[in-house]
Amino acid sequence: MTTTGTTLVIGATGTTGSRTAAQLAAAGHRVKAASRRATPVPGAEPVAFDWYDPATHAAALDEADRVYLIPPVGDADPAAIMLPFLRQARTAGVHRAVLLSSSAIPEGSPTVGIVHQALPDQFQQWAVLRPSWFMQNFTGTHAHAVSIREEGALWTAAGGGRVGFVDVEDIAAVAVHALTDAHAPNTDLVLTGPETLSYDDIATTITQVTGRPVRHHRLPYEQMRDRLAAQLPLEFASMLAGMDRAIAEGAENRTTDTVQRLTGRPAGTFRALLERESE
C-alpha cells in the first residue's frame, strides 16, 4: 500500500465515511474530512463541503489526488450534481475515485447507477462499492434501529427474503484498500457479510443477544411505502419500499468473498456486531 497522496472523504461524518476517514488516518494517510460543517474528525483535516453548494468544491479538492464519494442522501437524481463535480475533480488532479453505491443498484440504473456508469470514463483508477444492507441499520440512528428501541419491532415489505447484511467496518476496510492499494480495483465490488439472514432472523438474533424482544412485522408494499412516505419524499419512499419487495423476491439472497479477498480477513457476522456493541 502507498502512504503518499491525500484522500478527500466526502460525507466524513456519516456511516461509512467516518469509518473510512478514521481507518485511513490510523494507517498514516493524509485525509481531508469533508462535511457540511467541517466537523473535526480525529487524525484528519476538516473541510466544508456541500453537494448543493459548488462554492465549497474547489477548496475541498485542493491537493487531493483521490476521493471517496458518498452521494447526496435522498436525492433521486444524484448524477445531476455529481457528474459536474467528477469532471472538476479530474481537472483538479484527482486520479482515483471510489464511489459508494448499493448491491441493489446495478450500473446504469437510475440514481447512483448513472454515476457508476460514468466513473470509468472520468478516471483511469476507480472502484464502485456495492454493499448489501448495513448491519448498523439495526443499531444506529436508522429508522429500523429507532423502531427496535422504541417499539420492539421491525417493519418491512421484505417478507421472508434473505439479505447478506454487511458490517460497515468491513465496507470501510474495503474502501481503504480501494483508495490506497498500489493497483485500483477498476471494477464494481459487491460486499456482503458471510451469511444471508431474513428480517425474522435479525429480530431473533437481537432478542437472543440483547434480551430485548423484537418482532418483524411483514407489510405489503403499499403499506410500507406509505409508512416511509410519512418521513421521506414519496419518490424516495417508493424506491425504498420497492427494494424491500425485491428482497422478498430473492434479489439480495447472496454472499460474496470480496471482504476477505481484499482485506485478508473474514467478513463479520451480525451476532458478532451485536456482541461487540453490547460490551
What keywords describe this structure?
NAD(P)-bd_dom; Rossmann fold; alpha/beta; 279 residues; Ergot_Alk_Oxidoreductase; 41% helix; 17% strand; 11 helices; 7-stranded parallel sheet
Structural notes for this entry:
InterPro entries: Ergot_Alk_Oxidoreductase (IPR051604), NAD(P)-bd_dom (IPR016040), NAD(P)-bd_dom_sf (IPR036291). Pfam families: NAD_binding_10 (PF13460). There is one protein chain. By secondary structure, this protein is an alpha/beta fold. It has a domain at 6-131 and 168-190 and 255-263: NAD(P)-binding Rossmann-like Domain (Rossmann fold), CATH 3.40.50. Helices cover 41% and strands 17% of the residues. It has helices spanning 15-26, 57-61, 79-92, 112-122, 143-151, 168-180, 199-210, 221-229, 234-248, 258-263, 270-277, and strands spanning 6-10, 30-35, 45-48, 66-69, 96-100, 125-131, 153-156, 162-163, 188-191, 197-198, 215-218. The strands form three sheets. It has a seven-stranded parallel beta sheet with strand order 3-2-1-4-5-6-9, sandwiched between helices. β5 (96-100), α4 and β6 (125-131) form a beta-alpha-beta unit. The protein starts with 5 loop residues before the first strand and ends with a helix.
